């Protein structure tokens, strides 16, 4: 009995001096993907850097696999001051800043380096100025990655092959319209609902980076992978503005610096996955095809004019900035 009481006292004392209890600030990071996904590699690097640079005064806790809700729910939690940090693509934030949807027009970026140049300069500054008016504080940019098509019906090599296929997309207007222009029956749906929807035949397929396709085990419900490379998406790393304003300048500096320094680690993981996962997905039984990307790009091209008609000079200037850095480096 005495031994059990001693153990209980010891455990209680240990809890009192644990890092979480000693921390002056707790930061929750919410994501919708699995723990080994590149997004969470980036999250763990943010965690490591913040806790190291704050000498344990800031405790970072990561919640993966939609534990805190889907992307829309977590953005609303940021805006209401009940969650510290998450990330969503620029187009997803179009619900609050509609013109951001134009940045998810197909084949706008030729490759990942092109996107890094654009968001690392004038475009990234312009996006931040608009996003920060809506209850969040933009800290940096993670790579969401180059997106490819999968489906359960047939190989896709041309736009004609997409006819009649129900393909899930995020709830982003120009992202959805890109898939429609490519020839698909585009169906918006939350990511955490997708596997079950494909398993039950509600949709025939989806489009995502290789890391998402692999980590979410989509090869179990889709047999065909087409390397369309139709969209390169960028995640905005967001902090609750309400909670950001409550931080000390020193805390703000540590958190902002950690996100900036974690960007390269996260992007390196995406690149490593892109280099290795095709073999893994083929080994899992997927049939992989290299489609005619120029044919798909030609179908999508009119969306630029549509965006200009809708948003005017704003997106004209954004497209000029993007095109100006297309072939630099």
Distance between the termini: 71 Å
Number of helices: 14
CATH superfamily: Bacterial extracellular solute-binding protein, family 7
Q: What is the beta-strand fraction?
A: 15-25%
Q: Report the sheet with the most strands, covering strand number, pairing sense and barrel closure.
A: 7 strands, mixed
Number of domains: 1
What is the C-level CATH assignment? Alpha Beta
- Low-pLDDT parts are 1-20
- Please write the string of helix (H) and strand (E) elements: HHEHEHEHHEEHEHEHEHHEHHH
Radius of gyration: 21 Å
The overall average pLDDT, rounded, is: 93
Q: What is the percent of helical residues?
A: 40-55%
Describe it:
- The chain has 329 residues and is of the alpha/beta class.
- It has one domain: D-Maltodextrin-Binding Protein, domain 2.
- Helices cover 47% and strands 20% of the residues.
- It is built from 14 helices and nine strands.
- The protein has helices at 2-16, 19-22, 38-53, 71-80, 112-119, 122-131, 173-182, 194-199, 210-215, 241-244, 249-283, 293-300, 303-311, 313-324; strands at 25-30, 58-63, 85-89, 136-151, 166-169, 185-188, 205-208, 224-240, 287-289.
- The strands form two sheets. Strands 3, 4, 5, 6, 7, 8 and 9 form a seven-stranded mixed β-sheet that branches. A two-stranded parallel sheet has the order 1-2.
- Helix 3 packs antiparallel against helix 11 (249-283) and helix 13 (303-311) crosses helix 14 (313-324).
- The longest helix is centred in the last third of the chain and has 35 residues, at 249-283.
- The termini are far apart.
């Amino acid at each position: 009995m005495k031994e059990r009481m001693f153990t209980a006292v010891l455990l209680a004392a240990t809890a009192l001096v644990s890092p979480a209890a000693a921390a002056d600030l707790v930061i929750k990071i919410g994501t919708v993907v699995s723990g080994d996904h590149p997004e969470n590699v980036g999250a763990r690097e943010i965690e490591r850097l913040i806790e190291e640079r704050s000498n344990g005064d800031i405790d970072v806790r990561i919640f993966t696999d939609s534990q805190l809700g889907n992307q829309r729910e977590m953005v609303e939690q940021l805006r209401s001051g009940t969650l510290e940090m998450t990330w969503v693509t620029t187009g997803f934030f179009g619900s609050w800043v509609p013109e951001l949807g134009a940045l998810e027009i197909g084949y706008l970026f030729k490759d990942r380096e092109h996107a890094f140049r654009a968001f690392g300069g004038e475009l990234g500054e312009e996006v931040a100025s608009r996003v920060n008016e809506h209850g969040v504080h933009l800290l940096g940019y993670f790579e969401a990655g180059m997106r490819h098509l999968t489906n359960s019906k047939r190989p896709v090599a041309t736009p004609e092959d997409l006819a009649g296929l129900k393909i899930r997309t995020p709830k982003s207007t120009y992202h959805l319209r890109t898939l429609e222009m490519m020839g698909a029956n585009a169906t918006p749906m939350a990511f955490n609902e997708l596997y079950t929807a494909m398993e039950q035949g509600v949709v025939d397929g989806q489009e995502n980076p290789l890391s998402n396709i692999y980590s979410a085990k989509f090869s179990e419900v889709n047999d065909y992978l087409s390397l369309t490379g139709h969209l390169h998406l960028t995640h905005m790393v967001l902090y609750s503005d309400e909670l950001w304003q409550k931080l000390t300048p020193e805390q703000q500096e540590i958190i902002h610096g950690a996100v900036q320094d974690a960007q390269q680690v996260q992007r390196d993981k995406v690149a490593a996955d892109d280099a290795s996962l095709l073999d893994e997905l083929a080994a899992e039984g997927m049939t992989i095809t290299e489609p005619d990307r120029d044919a798909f790009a030609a179908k999508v091209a009119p969306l630029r004019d549509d965006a200009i008609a809708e948003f005017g000079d704003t997106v004209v200037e954004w497209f000029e900035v993007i095109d100006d850095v297309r072939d630099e480096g």
